[in-house]
Specification:
2 copies of one chain form a homodimer. By secondary structure, chain A is α/β, with parallel strands linked by helices. Chain A has helices at residues 11-18, 22-29, 37-50, 56-63, 79-94, 108-120, 135-143, 167-180, 197-212, 230-243, 255-268, 285-289, 301-317; strands at 68-73, 98-103, 125-129, 148-151, 161-164, 186-190, 220-222, 249-252, 277-279, 296-298, 328-330, 334-336. In chain A, the strands form 3 sheets. Chain A has a 6-stranded parallel sheet with strand order 2-1-3-4-5-11, sandwiched between helices. A 4-stranded parallel sheet of chain A has the order 7-6-8-9, sandwiched between helices. Chain A has a two-stranded antiparallel sheet with strand order 10-12. In chain A, strand 1 (68-73), helix 5 (79-94) and strand 2 (98-103) form a beta-alpha-beta unit. In chain A, helix 2 (22-29) packs across helix 3. The longest helix of chain A is centred in the last third of the chain and has 17 residues, at 301-317. Chain A is elongated and about 85 Å long. Chains A and B meet through helix 4, helix 5, strand 2, helix 6 and helix 7 of A and helix 4, helix 5, strand 2, helix 6 and helix 7 of B. The structure holds a DNA duplex (30 and 30 nucleotides).
DNA sequence: TTTGCTTTTGGTATCGATAACATATCCCGA
DNA sequence: TCGGGATATGTTATCGATACCAAAAGCAAA
């Protein structure tokens, strides 16, 4: 059916074909308004035959609602963030909202630009990853007049709402775990810039935790520019084994680098955890599948997304409670001890 | 600066504050139009101080351009598709276009719904993953009046343009590789439904390739509902080892399941490739990092994205050549032999 | 048949930016 | 000094759907 893909059809075309007013067609496409069921079906049918597709851009302008929730993440190619977005998106889709996703490549200047682009699309709310942003980005978010949720972090000075956890605190947990196992010479493999602010927070957390135990925190291996890949993790492990062979354990900034490190050990015949223990972060699937399984920290990425979605829906629907103050939801991360430690 | 987040500012507010017409403000925000540099800067400054953010929804309606390219992928949590989207998105961002991403969860009915939702947003073009779609989805795409690109496949009856490769053909390549190594008892681990159509095509390709070599293709292990995870790959390998211990090689539907299979072997003390060879698909990073490295097929995900982007930009900009016929770009996948075979 | 209410349908202005056209301003050479 | 083309700014109508208000149609009870 449907004509050739000529000029796009509008409600007017449908209205004429159905011998009703445009307004009636409009009603036939909304569920809550009053049209007789007969006309609605007739109009729907005619619209379908004409190949009419509803035009949201017009509706968005008129109603001043886009049903978008904007989301920025550092990278699309990261299972942790993907899980968060997935959970967020699932929950929002149930409420008829769509996620408008953009990624910053771990670059704050890029993030600022993205935020501006996203706000131009007039999202109903915006979710950003991390708690550090450029001044202009912060200002734009603050002035946007929509709910702002920072995730994957516990910012000292939140812009709006927060669903996250302290990355530094997770490293205290991990160092405690290793010290309890009797280890004192503990290294850290991470990025050598602060591009990944959460990774940098974890590095700082490692240092603080070591100092709290009265241990030296000089075994820092820079694995490259974030994000650190498996391959970079492997290379960094090589350097660690070469330069500080007496290291008893190494904490990697993520499970991916941890797995790279583990593979490097296997390649060299270094026994894990016999010769050296390895820990990661993120509870990626690989940590529980590889042999031996990797001790890690589960930051509950899906929970972050689900909680952010719930919060947003509450804020948007709770017409009365608009004045509700900024909420901080702290996510209960979990240390998952496994075979590498 | 900026006032309290009161009602959103419009160009009118800026115009009044700057004592110019709305039109002049509009011009100050486009780069190609004629405004004196002095006024432009003055207006920009005032707009910034007011906390004004350009409203795309209005511009979209008036100009009938959204600068969106819609993209559907089966899952966001898949490094292959993430790479394609990343490359696509990078290239399009350079041309001022944004990607509107949606994922179908390997479900054709869901995909149909997504396509409708996406088309309502009036994208300039749409990129879908795979060459199989519901009838209604095909009809909507055909009537959309915008460039349609199917990827990651070579559909028999394309809707519009194609950037992909034959999933079945890759399995012929892989079986040939294993047979050349002297193996004849070759198994396949994949999904047990056709939800992942590309995975199903690979399974069919394996069967056809085996038959072409005069070999039995009965060693089919169903690992679960697609997508097959590492864990499911491991479980499937366990069943394969238990039930057909004389198997010489196994092809897995993806590197993730292949890695799971490899880990299961290591856990059981089965030597790879000594006792059994393992092959995957996708050239995920893990295939080149784990020990031993996994033989795989590189479908060049980033190339798919980049080529799709190029094609779209050509189609949209080539004002003259609108009548350009449907293009099919075949991607040159590559078999990467490694240590597991 | 008429009244009074509900249900269904129609007319008009509008959301905010911009294309198209009109007008004002400027600068330079004749 | 003035004409004429380039440059800078203003005015009006418009994109397509919908809020708001008005009116018509349907229906039950009087």
């Amino acid at each position: 059916m449907g004509d050739k893909p000529s000029g796009a059809k509008t409600m007017k075309d449908v209205a004429e074909a159905a011998n009703v007013s445009v307004m009636t067609v409009s009603r036939a496409f909304k569920s809550d308004t009053s049209v007789s069921e007969a006309t609605r079906l007739r109009i729907r049918k005619i619209a379908d035959d004409l190949g009419y597709v509803f035009d949201s851009t017009a509706a968005n302008l008129r109603t001043q609602k886009t049903n978008f929730v904007a989301v920025t993440i550092p990278s699309i190619n990261n299972a942790n963030f993907a899980d968060t977005v997935d959970a967020l998106s699932d929950r929002l889709a149930g409420a008829g909202m769509q996620v408008l996703l953009a990624y910053s490549g771990y670059d704050m200047a890029k993030e600022e630009e993205l935020i501006e682009q996203l706000l131009r699309r007039r999202p109903e709310a915006i979710v950003v990853t991390g708690g550090r942003h450029s001044d202009r980005a912060r200002r734009m978010l603050r002035n946007a007049g929509i709910p702002v949720v920072e995730t994957w972090d516990l910012p000292a000075d939140p812009i709006g709402h927060v669903v996250g956890f302290s990355n530094a605190a997770t490293m205290h947990g991990m160092v405690d775990h290793l010290v309890a196992k009797g280890m004192t010479r503990i290294a850290f493999i991470g990025g050598d810039t602060d591009g990944d602010t959460r990774g940098a927070d974890r590095r700082r957390g490692y240092i603080a935790a070591m100092q709290r135990h009265g241990l030296a925190a000089h075994r820092l291996i820079g694995a490259g520019k974030p994000p650190i890949s498996m391959r970079e993790g492997a290379a960094a492990m090589g350097r660690l084994l070469d330069t500080m062979p007496d290291t008893q354990a190494v904490i990697c900034v993520s499970d991916l680098s941890a797995f790279g490190a583990l593979s490097e050990c296997q390649r060299r015949g270094v026994n894990v955890p016999g010769d050296i223990a390895i820990a990661g972060f993120g509870a990626y699937e690989i940590a529980g599948v590889c042999h031996p399984t990797i001790t890690t920290i589960d930051p509950k990425p899906r929970l972050i997304g689900a909680q952010a979605a719930e919060l947003i829906l509450e804020l948007l629907n709770g017409a009365g409670g608009e004045t509700r103050g900024p909420t901080t939801i702290e996510i209960d991360w979990q240390l998952k001890a496994a075979e590498t430690t």
